[in-house]
TrEMBL record:
Molecular function per GO: glycosyltransferase activity
Annotated segments matching region Disordered: 30-52
Keyword Electron transport: no
Database matches in InterPro entries: Glyco_trans_4-like_N
Protein name: Glycosyltransferase
Keywords: Glycosyltransferase, Transferase
EC number: 2.4.-.-
Residues annotated as signal peptide: none
Enzyme class: transferase
Length: 371
């Protein structure tokens, strides 16, 4: 066995905000094993680290593992395997076994939000969940579903903050607007298969017209809402264009928002409605929690396990519009939630980092790599 100053993790990916926030804040890592995550190789030049682009993940191949096995101690898959054939994914698992490298898989999604059918993602899960040496997921509900379907109980480790802590502190100091209409947001961005925003927006407009003091703000990307867009949704775009002249709907069409503009937009909402008909977990929900924006979330996933939300019924069978209206009224009656304190998120992050480091170290100790 070899003592080692730090554990080298081949993380797929490494540069995503969720993975970055699995690491401890400076000065808070005393008493836990050090963790170093390999940078994402550049997909266009795999011998060089990426400078922000990580997809498609170069590490997800048996060839990369065979060539780089001496550079990492454990392999941790989060996401990015959507386009892989399950047989290629099995070759990744087999290559890791060949080199004696533990595999950890964090089950973020039990249903891929980009796929109309669950079949392709299920085929991936049927490789990764039985093949991993350890499993992590974000909520108790997802853990129970994994245990029911595959007979394995994952470690449950919560989602860390999404917004940077100093930015959270800045927004927490800002006074919330008073006297303005109650602002309910629906973000249609680049439409995923999991999203069905039109029935949700129709129901929200009904509430706004009954209420008289509420506005529905819809933000969408140009590729969905402009006729020359690659994912143009004519029915949704034409409905929004017709309604945008009313007092109840405010439409914003734009391209991808950088983080500072995205946080400004989310913080300006009283309630953000997730228009999903299937799903599992949500980083968007976590960003809203960081900024003190209430969330209305469907009951089709495990969103309510992540944190306080106003639940409504929405699934592939359709939307229960009355439940959504009730959720909006309940959110308005409850008033604005307090944003999570940066101190609380920092303490949570320290715990998350510790649990990951201890899990890595435990796997390596069992394999005889670490003392």
């Amino acid at each position: 066995m070899q003592p080692r100053d730090s554990i080298r993790v081949a993380s797929v990916p490494s540069g995503h905000v969720y993975i970055r926030h699995l690491d401890p804040l400076p000065g808070t890592a005393q008493g836990i094993p050090g963790v170093v995550r390999l940078p994402d190789p550049d997909p266009d030049s795999p011998d060089n680290p990426a400078t922000g682009k990580w997809w498609p993940p170069v590490m997800l191949s048996a060839e990369w593992i065979d060539a780089n096995a001496e550079s990492f101690d454990v392999f941790h898959i989060h996401f990015g395997f959507d386009a892989l054939d399950p047989r290629d994914l099995q070759e990744v698992v087999t290559a890791l076994r060949r080199h004696g490298k533990p595999l950890i898989y964090t089950v973020h999604d039990l249903r891929n939000p980009h796929h109309e059918s669950p079949a392709a993602h299920d085929a991936h899960l049927n490789v990764l969940i039985p093949g991993a040496d350890a499993l992590i997921t974000l909520t108790e509900g997802a853990a129970a579903e994994i245990e029911r379907r595959w007979g394995r109980r994952p470690h449950v480790i919560a989602h860390p903050h999404v917004v940077e802590l100093d930015t959270m502190a800045d927004y927490a100091r800002r006074p919330r607007a008073t006297g303005a209409p109650y602002r309910v947001g629906v973000h249609v961005k680049s439409l995923r298969a999991s999203m069905e925003p039109l029935p949700v927006i129709r129901a929200l407009l009904e509430v706004a017209r009954e209420d008289g003091g509420m506005v529905v703000q819809v933000n969408g990307h140009c590729d969905v809402l402009q006729p020359d867009g690659a994912r143009y949704d004519a029915e949704l775009a034409q409905f929004l264009d017709r309604e945008a002249g009313s007092a109840e709907l405010e439409l914003h069409v734009h391209d991808f928002l950088p983080d500072d503009q995205l946080w400004e937009y989310l913080a300006g909402l009283d309630l953000s409605v997730l228009p999903y008909r299937f799903g599992t977990h949500s980083g968007w929900l976590e960003a809203c929690r960081d900024l003190g924006t209430a969330v209305a979330a469907p009951d089709c996933g495990f969103y309510a396990d992540q944190g306080p939300v106003f639940s409504y019924s929405h699934s592939e069978d359709g939307l229960d519009a009355e439940s959504l209206k009730a959720a909006v009224r309940a959110a308005r009656h409850a008033g604005p939630p307090r944003p999570l304190e940066p101190r609380v998120r920092a303490e949570q992050r320290a715990g998350i980092a510790s649990r990951h480091a201890e899990l890595y170290a435990g796997l390596l100790q069992r394999s005889g790599v670490l003392q």
